[in-house]
Amino acid sequence: MAVPIDTFSPASVTIIAGIGWSYPCDLWSVGCILIELLTGEALFQTHENLEHLAMMERVLGPIPEHMVRRSTRGAEKYFRRGARLNWPEGAVSRESIRAVKKLDLLEDIVSSRVDSSRSSLTDLLHGVLTYDPNERLTARQALDHPFFRNPT
């Protein structure tokens, strides 16, 4: 498998866990970019894989067990038995733990910056930031989303 050229921040769980890379990863990146446009900051500001996965779980909830089971041998070190992330036990530093703890849930990130009536943005972001690429919105589905159809 070829290694994708990618900035680290918008890397999806499938890239970090060695599951694979394809077009759905681009939609994940779009979600990260939309958050960055909204907040002015990258969503996952790290270059350490375990911390990155912990940040994802903090913002989006637990990584599904079936995704963890598909991770490559090199990525198994990020997970404990039972498919739980090896966090915070595996953290490289206290600063890393603090960086993860300061993150909010996706809904809170959006609602703190956008009128609550804009729940279609949160829905769109959940659609493109879905862990499983087979369940993630496609580009066509994202473009047809109410957030883009009714931008009032």
From TrEMBL:
GO terms for molecular function: ATP binding; protein serine/threonine kinase activity. PROSITE patterns: PROTEIN_KINASE_DOM. Residues 1-148 form the Protein kinase domain. The keyword Endoplasmic reticulum does not apply. It holds the Pfam family Pkinase. InterPro entries: CLK_kinases, Kinase-like_dom_sf, Prot_kinase_dom. SUPFAM superfamilies: Protein kinase-like (PK-like). GO terms for cellular component: nucleus. Keywords: ATP-binding, Kinase, Nucleotide-binding, Serine/threonine-protein kinase, Transferase. This is Protein kinase domain-containing protein. The lineage of its organism: Eukaryota, Viridiplantae, Streptophyta, Embryophyta, Tracheophyta.
